Amino acid sequence: MLKSLQRYNxxxxxxxxxxxxxxxxxxLYDNYSSSLHGAILGILPDTDTALDILQEVFxxxxxxxxxxxxxxxxxxxxxxxIARNAAIDMLRSKNWKNNKxxxxxxxxxxxxxxxxQTNTDVIGLRKIVHxxxxxxxxxxxxxxxxxxxxxxxxxxxxIPIGTVKTRLRKALIELRQxxxx
Amino acid sequence: MDIKxxxxxxxxxxxxxxLADQDEIRELERLRAQYPEIDQAIIAFEELLEQTAAEHAVxxxxxxxxxxxxxxKEEAMPAESAPRIxxxxxxxxxxxxxxxxxxxxxxxxxxxxxxxxxxxxxxxRYHDVRQENADLISQRTTLFADNKTYQTRLIEMxxxxxxxxxxxxxxxxxxxVKGKENNAATVFxxxxxRDVYVMSSKLAPAPSGKQYQLWALVDGVPxxxxxxxxxxxxxxxxxxxxAQAFAIxxxxxGGSPTPTLDQMYVFGKVG
Lengths: 181, 271
Hints:
The complex is a heterodimer of chains A (181) and B (271). Chain A has 181 residues and is mainly α. Chain A folds into 2 domains: 10-97, Rna Polymerase Sigma Factor, Chain: A, CATH 1.10.1740.10; 103-180, Orthogonal Bundle (Arc Repressor Mutant, subunit A). Chain A is 70% helix and 0% strand. The longest helix of chain A is centred in the first third of the chain and has 22 residues, at 22-43. Chain B is an alpha+beta fold. Among the domains of chain B are: 3-55, no CATH class; 169-269, Immunoglobulin-like. Helices cover 48% and strands 21% of the residues of chain B. Chain B has an 8-stranded antiparallel sheet with strand order 5-4-7-8-1-2-3-6. In chain B, helix 3 (22-34) crosses helix 4 (36-55). The longest helix of chain B is centred in the middle third of the chain and has 66 residues, at 100-165. The termini of chain B are far apart. At the A-B interface, helix 2, helix 3, helix 4 and helix 11 of A face helix 2, helix 4 and helix 5 of B.
């Protein structure tokens, strides 16, 4: 495999990817695989499974690049969404739940609000999320890392949907401030 | 609309992270087209997100990329997979990955083999059962035919019995003549209809080409009363209005116009 030394701007890269250019795809992998790997591990802290998912994610990117709409957002945002969805799909799958030793905990993840992840398991962005105050942490955990909709969360936590919405937004603003620092 | 407070509400972060609901997405996309500040704020957060993800990146083991590209090659050209597989260094795959296609293929193959074996098994069973069924049908047919025969015999015997029990029936015993003492026969003569029946089961079997014939002696003259065929027990012969005696002789098959007297077997007088 040739290591791509060339650099592309995003517009060029997307255009080449849409033509299924191998060198461009190689460049994409070299530049983004470790970022996406970290994001997947944040949701699903299992080394082997995360690598399987990462490969699936790049296969999806290769296959679905024609569906990527530049006007809707940056390429990385699109890839991150694919990675997050794939990781959450796996998290929700029976296979994963059955393989987990602390089965009861992950099954009850919603009511336990993400406390199934011990702090030592937590890496990356999720570690920052854990520094937020409890009522924010719970919402970010459930929505971003476990993939529940705001509606699901409102029902489960017995909080009005409006409260979930505003509280989640505040949590994200605070998270953003923490990142920037 | 207060664009600044909208931008700072957290809705942009929610949208970019994929947490916004349909209403929020629709509103934001509408406003984005309208206000460049919102568009810029979205892009700024996307850049921040990319940068943060890069800061928290976890390096991927060597070999994963090669595997990925091999897989893409396979998926892009499934039709010419045969020659390509040879080029693939199979052993150079250090990292575990899910290979669904071979697993599915292997499972399919197993299912095919099992299904094939079952087909053969069930086909053989089907054949056996079909043969058994055919045998049973032929047995049944035989039994039905036998049953019919027995029924017919039974009806005939019943008729014979009825006939013999009939009070109008006159019984004439014919005894073996000299030299033919072992033979005997019985004539049943219906006094109303004048029909003559003969039970000849005690006569020696007729040689081939020969046939027994019953004669009625009417005023000293033998009158043909009919030849005895191979009827089961009692044969109905001719109608004889009047006779004083009956006799049976062995004649050429088909019967004779006059009896061959030295071939008389049995004789009996009426009354």
